[in-house]
Amino acid sequence: MELDPNLAYSLNNLAMMLCDRGDLKESLSLAQRAVAADPASASIRDTLAYVQLKVKDYPKAQESLKMAVKLQPQEIKWRIKLAQAYEQAGETQELSKLLDEIEAMTAGGNISEIDRETIRQLRTKVPAKTALR
Questions:
Q1: Backbone torsions φ then ψ of 16, nearest 5 degrees
Q2: Domain residues of the chain, as ranges?
Q3: Could you tell me the CA-to-CA distances from 63 to 2, 5, 33, 113, 128 in Å, in that order?
Q4: What's the rounded Cα separation, in Å, for the pair 13 and 67?
Q5: What are the pLDDT digits (tens) for 41-94?
Q6: How many degrees, rounded to 5, is the angle at CA 48 between CA 44 and CA 50?
Q7: How far is Cα 128 from Cα 107, in angstroms, rounded to an integer?
Q8: To pair with 35 at 20 to 30 A between CA atoms, which of 17, 57, 84, 124?
């Protein structure tokens, strides 16, 4: 049985596999094709962001993750991954704002311990705010 070469999830999975093997150029191309084949998939946009982060294209990775958030606004994992992208890019101000948003969304406790710990670790990357005098 042959797979359709434009099938979004096949492209997506192959992109992840090649990225993890270090073939970033081909992985990026496949991830972009996967998004083109299924632009409404947040998880496919997440894969594209993953590859973009590997090649240190932080602005594009952040855009991909912002789109994942837009596509699935209630899914906290996209915001956490966007926060991680801000941290990797050294954008502490954006990181701080997003962490505030995440913490407000999860104040009711509907968050896994792993995600809570990730947020706690990310919070340590934000410099303490200086008091106004």
A1: -65, -45
A2: 8-123
A3: 33, 26, 16, 27, 27
A4: 19
A5: 999 999 999 999 999 999 999 999 999 999 999 999 999 999 999 999 999 999
A6: 110
A7: 21
A8: 84
